[in-house]
Amino acid sequence: MTTHRTPEQSTRRPAPHSERAVVAGLVLAVGAGVAWIGGMIYTIVGWSG
């Protein structure tokens, strides 16, 4: 009896262009998070002074 299984793809690396897109997205997300935290600190310092 023959089985119709697809080859394992878990060992295959993603395409380089998608990897660059993921890294770029992470960098932008970290930058946005740092800017948001900075804005919150600036706001709190402004309220207290």
Automatic annotation (TrEMBL):
Q: Which gene encodes it?
A: mmpA
InterPro entries in UniProt: MmpA_put
Protein name per its UniProtKB record: Morphogenic membrane protein MmpA
Indicate the transmembrane segments per the record.
21-45
What is the superkingdom listed in this entry's lineage? Bacteria
Q: What UniProt keywords are attached to this protein's entry? A: Membrane, Transmembrane, Transmembrane helix
